[in-house]
Design a protein that fits this description.
Elements lengths: L4 E7 L3 H7 L9 H22 L4 E4 L9 H10 L3 E4 L13 H19 L5 E2 L8 H9 L4 E2 L6 H16 L37 E2 L14 H6 L2 H10 L5 E7 L12 H6 L7 H15 L4 E2 L2 H8 L6
Parallel strand pairs: 1-2, 1-7, 1-8, 2-3, 4-5, 5-6
The structure holds zinc ion.
């Protein structure tokens, strides 16, 4: 039987992207807040990875590389063995609704920005807002990538997002988020080879899809905000329910190691409640979980998980 794998990945969304999804003006971010992801979150994650001795992956937004500081922080990360992968150029939440040509141009632009700033060649992609379309998977294939890791087959997440978007629209403050097709709720929860015509079904794409982890029962999403802000007994219970999965794909965001005292604006904290949890508490929880992920599985980058699983998914 093959060794069970786990991957820790962090989407490096800067705070401006949170303002957009929460319907807030990016003008409320000062210079410090705009740079928090690379000045503060990235070094905290690197320290944590090194303390635990784990491999990890950063998903990088190409457009953010225009900001001073991100490129250098990523070079330091890559030098310590962290994989750098593509999280689109624009982080447009509606990217999946654009044409094949527009999507491929966005992904290529991000790919080139990452190569130019870090000398690292990405081999994987994660969609903004976790929303896929056939055109998006075709663009991933055109780039010759080894994997996509965007499927988020979490029922509570989909329902909560539907409700929040309806509420924001009713308040006259529509979110920039878009709601994925409910087909995502039927997607496989473990690594699969997707169909280029139907991303949430099995098919013959030239790469693998690595869904983010949700619990086998109830499809509760085991992601960073859940792990850092829900009652610890629930976190531990959900973690144990995932004990037997083939690939534990633990997805986090840079904001998962930040708090209000770091300079996250109060207006954003009000809507992003997990930011109220002190960063020291969140880091202590993550340290414990990252350690557990290595207890009975091998911790590898998302790219390495894709390499090992590819070829074992058919039949
Ligand atoms: Zn993102």
């Amino acid at each position: 039987m093959s060794q069970r794998l786990s991957s820790i990945s962090v989407d490096l969304d800067s705070l401006g992207h949170y303002c957009r999804i929460q319907g807030l003006s990016e003008g409320l971010l000062d210079e410090r807040a705009r740079a928090l992801v690379w000045t503060t979150a990235v070094p905290r994650f690197l320290e944590l990875f090194s303390a635990v001795g784990t491999a990890a992956t950063f998903f990088v937004i190409g457009g953010d590389l225009a900001e001073p500081g991100l490129g250098e922080a990523l070079k330091t990360a890559a030098a310590s063995g962290v994989e750098l992968a593509n999280h689109s150029f624009s982080h447009d939440y509606a990217l999946s609704r654009r044409s094949r040509v527009e999507i491929e141009a966005d992904l290529r632009r991000a790919h080139e920005a990452i190569v130019n700033h870090t000398r690292v060649t990405p081999v994987g992609f994660r969609a903004p807002g976790y929303t896929l379309s056939p055109a998006m998977l075709q663009a991933v294939a055109a780039l010759g990538y080894r994997y996509d890791s965007s499927t988020f087959p979490a029922a509570p997440y989909w329902l909560a997002k539907a409700m929040v978007m309806t509420a924001l629209a009713a308040l006259g403050r529509p979110s920039r988020a878009i709601l994925d097709s409910p087909n995502v709720l039927l997607a496989p929860v473990q690594p699969y080879r997707p169909s280029l015509d139907a991303p949430y079904r099995r098919g013959d794409a030239p790469f693998v899809e690595l869904p983010m982890s949700v619990s086998p029962v109830g499809r509760v999403p085991f992601i960073g905000t859940f792990a850092t802000s829900m009652p610890w007994p629930l976190v531990e219970l959900t973690f144990r329910r995932l004990r037997h999965v083939r690939h534990f794909n633990f997805e986090l965001h840079a904001i998962d190691v930040l708090d209000e005292s770091d300079g996250v604006p109060a207006a954003l904290v009000r809507q992003q409640r997990d930011v109220r949890v002190p960063a020291t508490t969140k880091l202590a929880r993550l340290k414990r979980l990252f350690t557990w992920l290595g207890d009975d599985r091998e911790r590898v980058t998302v790219a390495e998980a894709a390499r090992r699983l590819d070829g074992r998914l058919d039949g």
